[in-house]
Design brief:
elongated, binds zinc ion, alpha+beta, 8 strands, OB fold (Dihydrolipoamide Acetyltransferase, E2P), 39% helix, five-stranded antiparallel sheet, de novo design (two linked rop proteins)
Length: 251
């Protein structure tokens, strides 16, 4: 049985002497496929089978329980800058690792978000904002959208003093605060709110910082909150994170 799908290559491994094993992320979910002879004959797939390339995959299912065979691939979007910009590549590797380790993920909206995000990373270097933007918004697709507008326990909208707890899932009001929460400065909350509300096609990171008077400490805190949030809800270690942070230090 033949079928075709749009797909993002999220990881690849050598298989035997000449074949490649590819993990594809598609609007219908993730699965592995075999590209036969892909390492022997470069001609067949040209350079299409690199990580984070977005392709139209033409596949063939053989028998039940066996991996589908990648018969042909057409290019949709091949990011080039991430191949020459080390930071971009490490950053996308971090996203690739998360996608690969999440046990079940799918759906057209999640796929389109990741696809647009790869496009964005290709042309944008603003990692200070790209990273928390991805982390906070990706949580939405996992069904754990951080609540940044009202108290997670009682629904009250705090006006002046904001408490925040990652295990509780977001904001807490004065009445509901507990021992594990911390105070969140209003300008930090404002940035987090903008990050989680701003649609990807309207992203303007320069606009975001305008009039915000953010110092290094504030930015570090925003980065930490977004990262801790994602880490709290993902039940696995992200190996590439330490490396990514070293690479992004000083950005
Ligand atoms: Zn409350």
């Amino acid at each position: 049985m033949f079928f075709s799908t749009e797909a993002i290559i999220i990881s690849k491994k050598d298989l035997g002497e000449i074949d490649l094993l590819l993990e594809l992320f598609t609007p219908k979910g993730k699965f592995w496929t075999i590209a036969k002879g892909a390492r022997k004959s470069r001609k067949r797939f040209v350079n299409l089978l690199e990580e984070f390339n977005i392709i139209k995959a033409h596949l063939r299912k053989t028998s039940k329980g066996k991996l589908p065979i990648l018969e042909k691939a057409d290019f949709i979007f091949l990011p080039e800058n991430i191949r020459i910009d080390y930071k971009k590549y490490i950053f996308l590797s971090y996203i690739g690792e998360i996608l690969s380790k999440i046990s079940s993920i799918g759906g057209e909206k999640t796929f389109n978000f990741v696809k647009s995000f790869i496009n964005l990373v290709e042309t944008n270097n603003n990692f200070i904002w790209l990273k928390p933007y991805f982390e906070l918004n990706f949580l939405k697709f996992l069904g754990w959208c951080p609540e940044l507008f009202r108290c997670v326990k009682c629904g009250y909208e705090p006006k002046k003093i904001f408490y925040f707890s990652i295990p509780e899932g977001g904001l807490l009001c004065y009445k509901c605060k507990d021992d594990r929460c911390e105070i969140l400065e209003a300008n930090i909350l404002e940035i987090l709110r903008i990050l989680i509300k701003m649609p990807l096609n309207k992203l303007n990171f320069l606009e975001l910082e305008k009039g915000m008077d953010l110092n290094r400490k504030n930015k570090t805190k925003i980065l930490k909150i977004a990262e801790d949030f994602l880490k709290f809800f993902l039940l696995f270690d992200i190996n590439s994170l330490k490396f990514l942070k070293e690479v992004l230090e000083g950005v």
